[in-house]
Structure prediction request, 947 residues.
Amino acid sequence: MLGYILKRLTYMVPVLIGISVIVFLIMEMIPGDPAQVILGSYATPENLARIRESLGLDKPLIQRYFIWLTNILQGDFGISYSLERPVSDEILDRLFPTLLLAGSSLVLCSIFGLLAGIVSAVKQYKITDKLITLFVLIGISTPSFWLGLVLVLIFSVKFSIFPASGMSAIYGGGGFLDILHHLILPSFTLAVVATGVIARLTRSAMLEILRQDYIRTARAKGIDERKVIFKHAFKNALVNIIPVIGIQAGFVIGGAVYIEMVFQWPGIGRMLVNAILTRDILLVQGGVVVVAAIYVLINLTADIMQHVLDPRIKT
Amino acid sequence: MTFFKKIRTFISKFSRNRLALAGLLMLLLVIIVVLCAPILPLQEPNETNLANRLQKPFGENYILGTDHLGRDILSRIIWGTRVSLAVGIVATLFSALVGTVIGIVSGFYGKIVDNVLMRGIDMIMAFPYMLLALSIVAVLGPGLMNALFAIAIVNIPFFARNVRGATVGLVRLEYVDASRVSGLNNFEIIFKELLPNVMPVIIITMSTTVGWMILETAGLSFLGLGAQPPQADLGSMLGEGRKMVMVAPHVATIPGLMILFVVIAINLVGDGLRDYFDPKLSSGALLSPAAFTDVADNALEYVKAEKIKNTPLQIRNLNTWFITDNEPYKAVNDVSFHLSQGECLGVMGESGSGKSVTALSIASLVASPPGKIVSGSILLENKELVGASLSELQNIRGKDIAYIFQNPLTTLNPLLKIGEQLAETILKHQPVSRGKAYDTAEELLKNVHIPNARSRLNSYPFQLSGGMRQRVGIAMALANNPGIIIADEPTTALDVTIQAQILRLMDELRGKYNNSLIFISHDFGVISELCDRIIVMYSGEIVEIGTVDEIYKAALHPYTKKLMSCVPEVGRKNQKIEAIKGLPPAVNKLPSGCFFADRCDFAIEKCREHNIPLREFGEKRKVRCIRAEELT
Prediction:
């Protein structure tokens, strides 16, 4: 087990290097003087000279990459010109809200998606299955940024059940319950699409497993149907579903960008959009690297969970 | 098949899928309306009229109201949909083109080319989708074309991967080599041989991604990173409307509804296309069997055979059908037999003769849908199993009637330890503790001669050989010492030497446990070693019943004779091993008269005239052949 984790960790290194290369190259492709772009149009000549030197702009590409890599490995992502503070500080402030939003959403979509998929498969072609399939179709076709607005109109404006924006109340907020209260709407909105995807996949994975010989064996032993479904079928289906949940994590993190804009959630997604609009390139770069690295970690976790579940998977 | 004919079958198949058809109609409606936008009597989408700003929908002059600049929302929606659809389609085509090139080149050239390209694709997929799109927009700057480009690029990996997969599959086939021999160069092979064959994959991928691409470009516009004013797509209209959502919610919600409508339509069509091109993925192809076989309400009404007293199991007039597309496939036809106490009853027949379905019907384990017990009675002692409730059946399964199945590689749950699979059936039927159940499980493994029984409890099935797994299967059947064991070709999937071991084990255990046994096999040799009596089945019917000795000495039915001559006998020289010519009749088109007549060397006209009854022949034998007397 430990050996497996170590092996997967070493596999991560080239992926992380690849990510850093891609992010570095993308930012290299920005037309114009990078120092000017980084500092914005009101930069002083002294600042321009300083940034040129710190980035080693006079040096060749490969050398510049390693300077940049060394810097980010030490947590130095540069200074955001629009916010006038270190990029790393800004990211650290905004990381928790995004992880809270995306994480809670991922939990929600996993629970609902798996349950809906199981019920749908077990009740294949019954009315329940048809209803779930219909909801799933609508779910995966819904623009989440629109759904967020509609939910705000219903639950915040009309019924005042949930707050429309922010992560905590402005006065005296920030407690667990307060944050939970603010979290429910955005988290639910973000979960809708992924729930649909997971439900679809779970349904087809369960249908595939339910016709396997060992399910008949379990039934032939007289095992109760609930155990047949969960202990025998679902456990086997989950082996194929877990990697997809890992991939969905990527879509949830990406989708968080919209949700953070709609609900004024103080996370990395909103930071990124504002950074792009103000052309604050270092902030974009830092945000992208950190989130991509987190995504790699999530997929690593999915791999390990799959391994725990299925002893046959060796590598 | 000609192109025209292909299109026709496509249309007829596609339109049978009602949801897909609905989606297509929705989509066509949208496309026609947006194409006609210039000639429709609409206001100018960008004509501002501040006097009429933020009109509510269904007002006098504005069906969908106006926005904050007094522009007509209906007109803006139609023109905006035009932009959104165009952007989505162009992005999809771009993605498909680049992805297909990468995928085909990668799959066709293989080796280092494949490695480099696919690792690159993996890298791109290591990013959260949306984040990569944002990075690209960050570089290119906000704008509709840039958003289109960003979304197209992040979707390339899906095409590249799917197309590569399909290409690799095709390249392995011989016809690529054949076309190379015939003088085509690589370029021609790719265009003439590969591209047409990977087309379905490209179409499926397009149909599943175009919906997202419309959603995601709309999303970028919503964030202000896509369409810039005065240009407007559905996303940017939603984004603008968001600012006044509290005062005039319709400005934002209407464009969103339009996106939803379009994407639902596209996804419905996409599902239909996928079902057409890849029927294996289609939802209808996989039927999940219910916990017990469907039974007709009046199944017991047609039972004619008389009850036999004091017999552990009696089957009377059993008919089990598979019903697909309202057509019955009669797998088991009016089968009646009984099992005596301590007896081993062999059931013999080719594959498709209905022997397994008969066996599975006993504990209602026939997969349904499509299986159904149409009529018949199954008496366990005096308890009627046809029509029994699931919980009654669950109490009988594994306790009174246990099964040993054919393929030990697939009949054990791969993710559960051997011990757990044995213990759970003990725990279900006996009031014992977990520890006791595991002790019993260990005892069972010892009885089926599995070495290191205690440690094997912690093994997974994949850690055992096929023969060992079948021993586990046997141990599982014996777990609650059932009165009846039904073994469905338990040795067919095993090597010959292992077969002999398993047979010896079963014989030994039968002496020890004294269960009654139904043993199903196509192999007379195997059955004769173990069994007392034999039932021979053909096309779902019993054609002969007799003791092993009687049948060995003189089989009555020509089919039995043929089956027996298929088995080589050890020590007999120059024997002719015959295959039975022809195939059994399809069970949805059973002929009148004798079902075997077409393959029988002795068939005469009378054989085909009317149904042949199973009749008594001597004291304990039965046969379904009118010429039995003259042929023996």
Remarks:
- Chain B touches chain A through 85 residues (CB under 8 Å).
